[in-house]
Write a structure and sequence with these properties.
Length: about 90
């Protein structure tokens, strides 16, 4: 339907990703991120998009040293979702 309404292939892929996020929220969705490779046939260029989650602004390389499970449990384990920003890119 997206392509029939003059959307691009990328628009259709984004629509499919939104649907998958609704059907499989435990595996993907707007609270996470994704990676995408795109080939533009008109000029043969290949693009890679990294829309994965990223660390909060105040994080640093040593914040988990000696902290046990802090990187996987608790408030320090939360990342900033990248999915919606990736759709925009």
């Amino acid at each position: 339907d997206v392509i029939k309404r003059n959307g691009s292939v990328v628009d259709a892929a984004i629509a499919a990703l939104f649907c998958n996020g609704l059907m499989c929220p435990q595996s993907m969705g707007i609270g996470g991120g994704f990676g995408m490779t795109y080939y533009r046939k008109s000029d043969g260029k290949i693009f890679a998009l990294n829309a994965r989650e990223w660390a909060p602004e105040w994080s640093n390389a040593t914040m988990f040293h000696g902290s046990g499970d802090a990187s996987t449990l608790g408030p320090l384990s939360i990342a900033v979702p990248g999915e919606i920003n990736g759709y925009w890119e």
